[in-house]
Design goal:
It is a single chain. The protein is built from 15 helices and twelve strands. It is α+β, with helices and mostly antiparallel strands. It has three domains: 2-108, no CATH class; 111-234, no CATH class; 237-353, Trna Endonuclease, Chain: A, domain 1, CATH 3.40.1350. It has a five-stranded mixed beta sheet. A three-stranded antiparallel beta sheet has the order 1-7-2. A two-stranded antiparallel ribbon has the order 3-6. The chain is globular, with a radius of gyration of 21 Å. 38% of the residues are buried. The chain binds zinc ion.
C-alpha cells in the first residue's frame, strides 16, 4: 500500500508539472523514487519491472492495479481500476484518493485552502463570505483573469476577506486542456470544469457523474487570451469541494422537499450539511463519492468542530453502492471508529421522509432529480 501511495503521488505531481508526457531525464525526484521502489518490488518478486518512467506511466494508464505484480488486499482496489485515464493521462479520482492517503501530501487535499478560508471568515465574523466562496468553487471552476480581478470587489461576489485567495486556487489553465485544432478551451456543459482532449480526438470530463451520461456535452468555449487568460480551479478543490458540493446542494434540495431543515457547510465548513429531521433529530451529513471504500473507511471520523448534532452520516450515491455491492462491508472493515454511519443518498432521503412515522400509502415514489441540470 505504501508503494501504491508513492506511485499515485508521483502521477499526480507529474500531471501538475510537466504533464505525464513527454518525460525526459532527469526525472522529478518523487517520480524517480516511485520508479525505483516499483522496480525493486518487482525484482524481489522476480517480475519484469518497468524500465523507465514512461513505462511506469503506461502501467498507470493501461494496466489495472489488480494486474500489477505485487499483491495488495483485493478489497482496497476496485477491480479493473487504473491510476491514469488512458485517453488523457490525467489522474483518476482513485489516483487522488491514494495520493491523499499518504500523510505527507496534505497539499493534495482541500484542507489547507479551506481551513485558511474558514479561519479568515471566522476572525471577521463573516459567514456569508465563506458561503459565497464555497458556492463560487462549486459553480465556477473556470474563471478568466478579469473575473479574478473583479469578483472580489463585486456585490454578487461578497467574498470579504477571501478575494486574494482566488489567485492561489485558480491557476492558469494547463495547455494540455487546450483543443489545439480549434485553439479553444471548452467547458463541460454539465459541471463547468474544463474538458480534456483525448488521444482519440474526443473530449473527456474528469467527473464520473458526467461521463456516465450518454455523451460529453460541450459548454462555454474560451480562447486562451479571453479577458486576460483562462484559469482553472486546482484539482484537489475540484475533486474534494466542487464535485462534492454539487451533490450536497442537490441532496439538500431533496431533503428540504421532504420536510427537513438543512444548513449547508455550517460552522465555516466544519461539515457538509446540518440536517434537522421533522422529529427533531439533528444529523451532521457529508457527501463522500469515493472510488475506494477502503481508503474512505481509513479516513472515517466524526467532525471535530461545528454546531452540535445527534448522529453523523456519510452519504454515498446509491448508484455507487449498486455498482460495488461490497462497498459498505469494505468501508466497515477499514474504519477506525463507529461514527460516521454510512448511508446511500436514497436511504438518507427515506430517513427524513419516515422520521415522523412510516410512510402513508403511495409514498416512496422515486424522487431523484435528473442528473442533467446540476445547478
Ligand atoms: Zn463534467
Amino acid at each position: 500500500m505504501r508503494l501504491l501511495r508513492s506511485v499515485a503521488t508521483a502521477m499526480v505531481r507529474l500531471s501538475e508539472s510537466t504533464g505525464t508526457r513527454p518525460l525526459n531525464q532527469p526525472y522529478p525526484d518523487q517520480a524517480q523514487q516511485a520508479l525505483n521502489e516499483t522496480a525493486l518490488a518487482c525484482l524481489m518478486l522476480m517480475a519484469q519491472p518497468p524500465e523507465s518512467l514512461p513505462e511506469l506511466v503506461e502501467w498507470a494508464a493501461d494496466r489495472p492495479l489488480d494486474d500489477w505484480p505485487f499483491t495488495v488486499p483485493d478489497d482496497v482496489i476496485p477491480r479493473g481500476a487504473v491510476l491514469l485515464d488512458s485517453g488523457t493521462r490525467q489522474p483518476t479520482p482513485l489516483c487522488y484518493e491514494w495520493a491523499v492517503d499518504a500523510e505527507e501530501t496534505t497539499t493534495l487535499s482541500e484542507r489547507p485552502h479551506m481551513s485558511m478560508a474558514a479561519t479568515r471568515c471566522r476572525e471577521e465574523d463573516y459567514p456569508e463570505a465563506y458561503q459565497s466562496f464555497r458556492r463560487l468553487l462549486i459553480r465556477r471552476p473556470v474563471l478568466t483573469n478579469r473575473d479574478l480581478v473583479t469578483l472580489p470587489g463585486s456585490d454578487d461576489g461578497e467574498l470579504g476577506p477571501l478575494g486574494d485567495l482566488l489567485h492561489d486556487i485558480y491557476q492558469p489553465a494547463p495547455a494540455a486542456y487546450l483543443d489545439r485544432r480549434r485553439g479553444v478551451y471548452t467547458a463541460c456543459a454539465r459541471c463547468r470544469t474544463l474538458l480534456h482532449p483525448t488521444t482519440e480526438g474526443g473530449m473527456w470530463c474528469e467527473r464520473q457523474s458526467c461521463r456516465k451520461q450518454d455523451s460529453v456535452r460541450h459548454g462555454r468555449e474560451y480562447r486562451p487570451d479571453d479577458d486576460g487568460g483562462v484559469h482553472l480551479l486546482i484539482r484537489p478543490l475540484r475533486q474534494w469541494v466542487s464535485a462534492a458540493g454539487v451533490q450536497e446542494e442537490r441532496l439538500a434540495r431533496r431533503l428540504v422537499k421532504h420536510g427537513a431543515d438543512v444548513e449547508l457547510w455550517p460552522g465555516y465548513g466544519a461539515y457538509g450539511m446540518r440536517v434537522r429531521l421533522p422529529d427533531g433529530t439533528t444529523l451532521a451529513v457529508e457527501h463522500k463519492d469515493w472510488t475506494s471504500p477502503a481508503l474512505l473507511g481509513r479516513r472515517a471520523a466524526p467532525p471535530s468542530a461545528g454546531p452540535p448534532y445527534d448522529r453523523c452520516v456519510w452519504v454515498v450515491p446509491a448508484a455507487r453502492l449498486r455498482e460495488y455491492p461490497w462497498f459498505r462491508s469494505v468501508f466497515e472493515r477499514y474504519r477506525p471508529t463507529a461514527s460516521p454511519e454510512l448511508m446511500s443518498d436514497r436511504e438518507l432521503v427515506d430517513t427524513v421522509r419516515w422520521s415522523d412515522g412510516p410512510p402513508s400509502t403511495g409514498a416512496g415514489a422515486a424522487d431523484d432529480e435528473p442528473v442533467e441540470g446540476l445547478f
